Task: inverse folding
């Protein structure tokens, strides 16, 4: 039943799409995030609930195509009618903290992205998993290469898997990926990746030290490719910025920034402003549903180390 104030009282749940070609390691990543959601109530949409490999002690209930976990996460098989699957989520009395959808191996995230912006949801970002050991060979095949290129071209973040199996350590794969996208590339082994990287900082689950990023000139780094590497978390004070200044700050974030999130009290606005960045994607939105006292004028930033 829809709450009296409308669907979740106007709240829009962040929705992350996880794409990548067959065998890239998407389900392994989903398994890790589901087991380690860092306090989130997560809904994971997968093609096969049986592929979600969690300890029996973590399973609270398993009914049909739905798996409920003791950590508050729910895994659902994607129905033939995707719209019906989304309606099932919207029917929840309380909204989840996040929705993570694993696409099929031949799915193109750009085609599914509009669904992530329908009623009750907002697209958080597109994460694409790339099999470093095989992607160069696969990309050279008819049709398969077009699918891989389309997946990578839509990515806000790229998770590079199986580099430990590649004879060259993944150098050729990174070169291929770089020829298609400027999105940050993060190396992942056995699907182990911080949920804050995949799902974003909503709300922040870390308590990093207060630091300041190097001087950021708006727009100068916008189209340069980010480096490859691990990541670290820090805090950026934005002060009493205007909305325009905050937007310029987001645009000028260094290309090694993977994620950034904050609730800011802009000096020329009467409601909190939510600032959000994931890879190349930038967004600000007014949060009239939140009290201004919740704004703390800082961004939590995850960047490549």
Result:
């Amino acid at each position: 039943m829809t709450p009296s104030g409308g669907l979740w009282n106007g709240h829009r749940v962040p929705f992350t799409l996880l794409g990548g070609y067959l065998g890239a390691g998407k389900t392994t990543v989903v398994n890790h995030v589901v087991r380690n959601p860092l306090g989130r109530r997560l809904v994971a949409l997968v093609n096969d609930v049986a592929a979600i490999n969690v300890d029996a002690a973590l399973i609270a209930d398993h009914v049909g195509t739905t798996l409920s976990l003791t950590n508050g996460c729910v895994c659902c098989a994607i129905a033939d009618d995707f719209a019906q699957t989304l309606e099932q989520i919207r029917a929840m009395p309380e909204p989840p903290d996040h929705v993570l959808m694993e696409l099929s191996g031949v799915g193109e995230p750009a085609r599914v992205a509009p669904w992530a912006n329908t009623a009750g949801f907002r697209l958080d970002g597109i994460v694409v998993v790339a099999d470093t050991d095989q992607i160069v060979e696969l990309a050279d095949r008819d049709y398969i290469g077009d699918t891989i290129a389309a997946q990578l071209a839509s990515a806000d973040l790229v998770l590079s898997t199986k580099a430990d199996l590649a004879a060259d350590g993944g150098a050729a794969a990174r070169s291929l990926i770089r020829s298609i996208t400027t999105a940050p590339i993060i190396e992942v082994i056995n699907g182990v990746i911080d949920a804050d990287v995949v799902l974003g900082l909503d709300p922040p689950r870390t308590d990093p030290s207060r630091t300041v990023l190097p001087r950021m000139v708006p727009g100068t780094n916008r189209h340069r490719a980010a480096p490859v590497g691990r990541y670290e978390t820090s805090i950026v004070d934005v002060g009493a910025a205007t909305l325009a200044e905050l937007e310029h700050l987001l645009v000028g974030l260094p290309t090694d920034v993977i994620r950034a999130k904050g609730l800011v009290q802009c000096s020329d606005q009467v409601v909190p402003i939510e600032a959000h960045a994931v890879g190349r994607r930038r967004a600000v939105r007014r949060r009239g549903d939140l009290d201004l006292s919740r704004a703390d004028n800082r961004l939590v930033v995850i960047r490549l180390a």
